[in-house]
Amino acid sequence: MESLEKLIQDLTQEAAQIQIQGRSLRPDEMARLQAIHQALPHLRQAADILRIEVVTSLITYKIVSDVGGRLKQAGRTACNFWNRFIAPASSIVIRLGVFTANNNTIARAYKPYTRTGVIYGVVEFNTSYLSSFSGNEIAGTIIHEIGHTLGFGWEQWQELFDPASGRFTTAAIDRLPALETMRVETDHGPGTRFSHWDEQSHDRELMTGFKDHSEHVLPITISVMELLGHQVMEELPRETDLNTLMESLALVIFSRQGEAKTLDRDHFQATDLWENIPHDRPLPKKRSS
Ligand SMILES: [Zn+2]
């Protein structure tokens, strides 16, 4: 991209120099000038196309508080996950921090808020789990939360299914046939109900309401993002173990720091609590010995 800009600049300069000779041009100079004038519009068009591709939206994170850098590492893996599969309709900043409570809440997420075209999602992690969870378990939880920020549970999602049965509408299935076999969670409290795949039908899938020890991702979890207004960059070909996916992503070097830096990651607004992520089992009681 930079070399293309440089080429356009060099050719523009060369053409200008040929023209300011102060004498009539030689045939070779005339030919060169003509060639440059023919090439420049195409080069400029190519540069415009490349510029559009470079300036796309992305998902990034901001660490508000952490324990031993664990959220930072997990946040990076989680953003790599979604950035690999989708280009969101608008950029997303996940603000990650910690809280401490001795209960089975692994993490809690707050209602996303928007400012100047950026969506912010706040996720706080329970330090009781942060120390005992593996890096992948933390990253998996953040991936799940970003799934909500991307629309699992919000307006566009709610229009896709019948809340009484948890089945997707004919219109939704027409757009995405794989929705035929999917069911939406209709049980449990607000925050779980209507904003996940059904626990009973899809048990260990990433976007069910309960965190399991070993989870997988169904291709539909990626492809449904198209119906939530995002662009799917890469489809997931088959049901894939979440740990396997994350291991390949932990090594990916984030190449879009420049773009991430242009986003205001510090903007904060207090919003309502949206979801508590419960563990499938409560924390073991501390023994007093
Ligand atoms: Zn959830």
Distance between the termini: 65 Å
Give start-end ranges of low-pLDDT stretches: 281-289
Helix content percent band: 25-40%
How would you state the average pLDDT, rounded? 87
Q: State the total count of DSSP E strands.
A: 10
DSSP summary: helix tally: 11
Shape: elongated
Name the bound molecules.
zinc ion
* Helix/strand order, N-terminal first: HHEHEEEEEHHHHHEHEEHHE
Structural class: alpha+beta
**Total count of domains:** 2
Rg value: 25 Å
Structural summary, described in words:
This protein has 289 residues and is an alpha+beta fold. It folds into 2 domains: 2-51; 59-277, no CATH class. Helices cover 39% and strands 16% of the residues. The chain is built from 11 helices and 10 strands. It has helices at 2-19, 27-54, 70-85, 127-130, 135-149, 155-158, 170-175, 199-202, 219-223, 242-250, 257-261; strands at 59-63, 86-87, 92-99, 105-110, 113-115, 118-126, 216-217, 231-232, 240-241, 273-278. Strands 1, 3, 4, 5, 6 and 10 form a 6-stranded mixed β-sheet that branches. Strand 5 and strand 6 form a beta hairpin. The chain is elongated. The model is unreliable at 281-289 (pLDDT under 50). It binds zinc ion.
